[in-house]
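Continuing the series of single-chain predictions for the mutant panel. This is the parent chain; the variants come on the following pages.
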Amino acid sequence: MLTLFQRFDLNPRRVSLIETWGPIAIILLAATLRLYNLGFPSSLNFDETYYVKDAYSLLNGGYERNWDSGADASFAAGNPAGILNDPSFVVHPPLGKWLIGLGMLVFGSGSPFGWRIVVALLGIATVWFTMKSAQLIFHSKIWGLVAGFLMAIDGVGIVLSRTALLDQILGFFVILSFYFLLRDKKQVRIQSWNRPWLIAMGVSLGLATAVKWSGLYFVAAFIAYIVLVEAHLNYRVQKNIEVKLEAPLPKTFWVIPSITQALRNAVLVTIPAFFIYLASWSGWLLSKDAWSRTWADSEGNGLSGIFSWIPTSLQSLWHYHTEIYNFHINLSASHTYASNAFTWPFMLRPTAFFWQDKESGCLFDSASSDCVSAITALGNPIIWWAAILATSVLAASWFRTRDKTITLIALGIFAGYLPWLFLPNRTMFEFYVISFSPWVILLLVAGLRAWFHNSAEPRKAAHWITGLLLVCALSSAFFYPIWTGMWISYDFWRLHMWLPSWI
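Parent structure:
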């Protein structure tokens, strides 16, 4: 099949320039959108009130502590005097907060820029690895650039990259692990322990899980994919041999190697992931004052018999994990911006992160309208709604073609989105889509690519695709003020509220 460049007979020098400078331009675009005025708002924004203060606690003691009721204002002013000595019960692993703490270590605990810079850098890196993954999947740098461009200008990625929450950090590590999976596919070695990219994937998945337990869904999905793909490959090898021999072979010929390879791959992925995850709890393990840290040392709590050799610190860590698990499965509190997972791709109930108002002094200021500064974690609606259309078409054609590329891309949707559909009673928020948004972009690009290659008039299709990208860019420019909290008139803000459920 001809590439986009070949169909239009573009000048090879121009093609080389696009392929060389295009990725750099996209990363600069992503960086500009995420780093501009990153220190605003200067207050703790949405759930930053938990994660930023937890990061400070980790830096100054190795475990999370409670804070007094007036701590947010004093902390934002550079005075963390509200920290208490008693430990805090937290429900997410420590790694994401340690990473947030890195920025605070460099720029100071009272610097909003410092709270957010590491998350912002990982958000920019997410754009890069989405682009590189698209290049590997579609064997095309131009389609990789399209994916990178769409990822760079999407609102969910911009807002989550500019806020010191855990979700963009999780999103970075899962797309990184997917990139390693793709690299492993290029150098797959059946019946071999020599799988460096698979080990790298395991490390990245361990880091993802050490940020949020949602990373476990990706562990399961990626391992299952590798096992099934390699079992199918062994099956095809057997069938080819049978054709040459003109005689059937026993099923064990492909089943046993598939089982041994599955076990080997599981070890290569889960062992690095497990130890990376355990290492993320080092601060907790090295402290005697953290939440539940000495639980197993209390009479009647520790294990006895053949398991008594397990260190009490690890027994206490296991108990803490049962407490966290019970919290998550029973989380069903009401929240103004809670949303059902079935509505997420449609962008029906975006989460408002920040709101402030004043009488005057803003863009499009007028005597009849107040000024507002609002941050809403809303994806670019053109991108997301177009992705729904593309996904619907691709899903319909998949039942006829069994397209392996679509199956591969769907992995991220299965791991990042599907599990939430089975938790209808849990309190959830639409910005959780950040963990699987790269795969939404990849599905949209796959749809655009299929449209172009199957079109009877490729030049016309290319014009339509270019037009869509332009509309996406204009949409992002329009919504950028409510992604970054720019001061705008209330009337102008209302123009952005296309649906009543966005308010």
